[in-house]
Amino acid sequence: MVMLHEKLAAFQSLHCLGYVSSFPQQKERATCFLLNLKAIASGEKWFPMKGKVLCRVEDWQGTIHLGQLITVSGKIILPHKKSNAGEVDFYNYMVEKGISFELLSKDKFFLHG
């Protein structure tokens, strides 16, 4: 997982193609869901990729469904390791769930089919 984080840290924004693998939930102004990756792209070039991404799409008014193929574009947020004794260890939580990174999107995604 560390090697993937190091590779992803070079990208400011990313396009992720995959299947919605959790029921979307509304949290404040965002729709949150897990995406099973099939490919990622930065710019025009796509690369095959496996893993899970925690997607947070802000200000989106549409609907997405479990199992739907979508492309989400946004900013990568890598989990940080806890720095205080009482702090929640979000990094370990993500590792345990098999989630590679979080993607923050501002209503930028495309539904396939």
Keywords, separated by commas or semicolons:
113 residues; mainly beta; OB fold (Dihydrolipoamide Acetyltransferase, E2P); five-stranded mixed β-barrel; 2 helices; 13% helix; 48% strand
Describe the fold and architecture.
This protein is mostly beta strands and 113 residues long. It has a single domain, classed as OB fold (Dihydrolipoamide Acetyltransferase, E2P) (Beta Barrel). The protein has helices spanning 2-8, 90-97; strands at residues 13-20, 25-27, 30-42, 45-48, 52-58, 69-77, 99-105, 109-111. Strands 1-3-5-7-6 form a five-stranded mixed barrel. A hairpin with a 2-residue loop joins strand 3 (30-42) and strand 4. The termini are far apart. The relative contact order is 0.26.
What is the element string, with H for helices and E for strands? HEEEEEEHEE
Relative helix content: 10-25%
Shape: globular
CATH topology (level 3) name:
OB fold (Dihydrolipoamide Acetyltransferase, E2P)
Order of strands, widest sheet: 1-3-5-7-6
Query: CATH homologous superfamily name?
Result: Nucleic acid-binding proteins
Distance between the termini: 32 Å
Major sheet summary line: 5 strands, mixed, barrel
**How many DSSP E strands?**
8
Taken together, the total number of domains comes to 1
**Spans of at least 5 consecutive residues with low confidence:** none
Name given to the CATH architecture: Beta Barrel
> SS-based structural class?
mainly beta
CATH class: Mainly Beta
Mean pLDDT: 81
Please indicate the percent range of residues in DSSP E strands (runs of 2 or more).
over 45%
Report the radius of gyration as a whole number of Å: 14 Å
Compute the number of helices.
2
Domain DUF4131: 17-106
InterPro entries: DUF4131
Organism: Methylacidiphilum kamchatkense Kam1
Protein name: DUF4131 domain-containing protein
